[in-house]
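User: Could you check the structure of this?
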Amino acid sequence: MNDPRDSLLLHNSGFWQGCFVRLDHTGKEQERFPTSLEVKEAEGFIQTCLTYKQSGRQQSMNFGSLPSSMQVTQTGHWSTGPSFITPWNWVAELCVVNQQQRRRMIVRHGATGLDRVIYVVEAKQDTVQPELSQPLHCQSTSFGQLLIWSPEPGVELFIDPRDRQQGDLTGCGIRWCDQNKITHQILRQYDRAGVLTPLSDNWIQQTN
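Assistant: Sure, the predicted structure tokens are below.
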């Protein structure tokens, strides 16, 4: 039986060198900054320490058990965010893991639609760091009522740009088809009542 905590540690532990790119609601880069992240287990706790290289500022987090609203796949992909949402502000984070590399998205929804997105490219220490175009401006295509942003070849970010109303299905996702044509993906979806739904391999269906 899959243990989400074990899967999270197995695929995400270690030292990650990263680049955070902050995008506006149109997918255009506003700023970027290099980071390093350590993820480990110590004394029964999962410990993370994120360092912003330019300033040296650090953010640490320790937890013994996974939050009830955290979703983890058998292959170590994960998502966090609220277990219940309204049409107002909410934030979610999603991550897909491909051996020595990861892609992450932190998406913030405001009261009148999409606020901003942070796209994160990470590679294990001593692994070649992928180069992102600079400045980044995501290509955008429609997917029903959603948008798909493409920050780099093979990566798709599923975004809900709407001024949502109560009862609207919503969600966010990240899908990465790597150079070996293997797809890594995770979708965080909410039903019409705003309740987080179980993980699914299916993307949000196009609805009117």
